[in-house]
Amino acid sequence: MLELQLELEHIDQHALNNMSEERLKHYNTILREQVRELDQEILNVESSFRYAYGIDPFESVSPDGVLQNLAVDLKELRLNVRTLEQDLAAFEDIKNLKLWLKRCKVVSAPSDFEFMPF
Q1: Are 48 and 95 in the same domain?
Q2: Alpha helices in the chain (DSSP H)
Q3: Are residues 50 and 70 in the same domain?
Q4: What is the pLDDT of residue 11?
Q5: What is the C-alpha to C-alpha distance for residues 61 and 67, in angstroms, rounded to an integer?
Q6: Are residues 48 and 98 in the same domain?
Q7: N or C: which end of the chain has fewer CB within 10 A?
């Protein structure tokens, strides 16, 4: 960062060698502040990314880890799409749809042991 700062101010090595101690301290102070700002920006971007993609705040984030999670998510989504396509094809026959709805009704029916308010 110091090199960039020096480039921006067109300071060459000769000028750097002759720079006063006070001036170097000033540059170091500026650079420390820039590092703090960049660290905070990284934390903000990382937090937003974690929140957007449901990543645990304490889990480390790396490109490889994110790509692995993405691969798992894609595999699950493809499986869900296949299942939905199969269901859609099966429900084209109204008899299959009625049978499925009856099964759902039986599964969701309250049992004799469930509390039923009067």
Answers
A1: no
A2: 2-8, 13-17, 21-52, 63-91, 94-108
A3: no
A4: 63
A5: 10
A6: no
A7: C
